[in-house]
UniProtKB/TrEMBL annotation:
Name listed for the protein in its UniProt record: S41 family peptidase
UniProt-listed InterPro entries: ClpP/crotonase-like_dom_sf (IPR029045), PDZ_sf (IPR036034), Tail-specific_protease (IPR005151)
Pfam families: Peptidase_S41
Native species: Cohnella ginsengisoli
Domain Tail specific protease: 100-312
Length: 339
């Protein structure tokens, strides 16, 4: 959604929308008797909770076009580059959740069996590291060793800087995230203190035995670093950008902040709802070095690791990223290190 415009980012082949003439990048002028913006704003449901306003809006875009099977919707739209408004009627059909699957990243068994870290030298002279998750596996090489080897290679090849890609990283173990962050610090830092909710006192209390620290590791990388994030960078995936943010050689880059879901769970808080539904809340909070809650979004929907360089989501970047398939975030990350 850009300045009140709702642009189509996904059209499945042979779907009713594709057959009707709606194309990728089309502007939805009206939807089911409302303007496109009104239809977008009234959409609130998601298959999982969202902590930030940015995460909520991402899911509004995913669910705006879903409806009970058989429901008919009148649509007015303008295809990209056209000034003509066209009208059509769409009928909801059973797509076996394909539109949701294509807009929700999920680790595959192959992802979990392979090393969570991949890297290469880019043609532009920058090092690139993709960290898919922070879930250690006993049958693959140590993630710490993999990253150390890549950093040695980048130094040997005089890389101009390093891009760490944490987009869509769902998290895993905080200790592993702290260990990997250790290659980018030259003195010990607090990754997190932890406090848990005490059901007897009704207060959160610090667990002094649970402190995670970022300890310097070799090889130490002190070059320019750009960390790529998005609204699907969650849990301990948010740890590295949170702990490295503010360092003079590090820039956080993305369209949005991270997911803002940095809470911890030991014995979840349970609330029973009508009709047998049960809601579970994390009972732990991650605290920064000042023992203030970090990472989790607040009541206004603001939270997570916030980009130092926030890429504008407008028609130009929509066209580049969605329609032309360019990696806009990677381009901005490179630009950040060339300044």
């Amino acid at each position: 959604m850009d300045n009140g415009k709702v642009l189509v980012s996904l059209v499945l082949e042979n779907s009713p929308a594709a057959r009707s003439g709606i194309k990728l990048g089309a502007e939805i002028v009206s939807w089911d008797g409302m303007t496109g913006a009104e239809a977008f704003e009234r959409t609130s449901w998601s298959e999982n909770g969202t902590a930030t306003d940015e995460g909520k809006r991402f899911n509004q875009g995913r669910f705006m076009v879903r409806a009970p099977i058989g429901k008919e919707v009148q649509v007015e739209y303008r295809n990209w580059g056209s000034s003509e408004t066209e009208r059509t009627k769409l009928t909801a059909y059973d797509d076996q959740f394909e539109t949701l699957k294509k807009t929700k990243n999920k680790l595959t068994p192959a992802d979990l069996e392979a090393s969570p870290i991949e890297g290469e030298m880019l043609d532009n002279g920058y090092g690139y590291v993709k960290i898919k998750h922070f879930l250690p596996k006993s049958n693959v090489a140590s993630p710490e060793k993999k990253l150390a080897d890549l950093l040695r290679m980048f130094k040997a090849k005089n890389a101009k800087g390093l891009i760490i890609d944490l987009r869509d990283n769902p998290g895993g173990e905080d200790q592993l995230a702290a260990n990997l962050a250790g290659f980018f610090v030259n003195k010990e830092k607090i990754y997190e203190y932890v406090s848990y909710y005490n059901r007897y006192t009704g207060k959160f209390e610090l667990n002094r035995n649970e402190v995670i620290k970022v300890k310097p590791s070799k090889p130490y990388y002190d070059g320019k670093v750009a960390i790529l994030i998005n609204s699907r960078t969650g849990s301990s995936g948010e740890g590295m950008p949170l702990v490295l943010k503010g360092m003079p050689n590090v820039k956080i880059v993305g369209f949005t902040s991270t997911a803002g879901s940095f809470g911890l769970v030991s014995s979840p808080i349970e609330i029973k709802m009508p009709e047998g539904y049960v809601i579970h809340f994390p009972d732990g909070r991650s605290l920064n070095q000042d023992k203030t809650v970090q990472g989790d979004a607040d009541a206004s929907g603001v939270g997570g690791a916030v980009p130092d360089i926030q890429i504008p989501l407008n028609e130009a970047t929509f066209k580049e990223s969605v329609m032309e398939g360019q990696d806009v975030e990677l381009k901005y990350a490179t630009g950040a290190m060339e300044r």
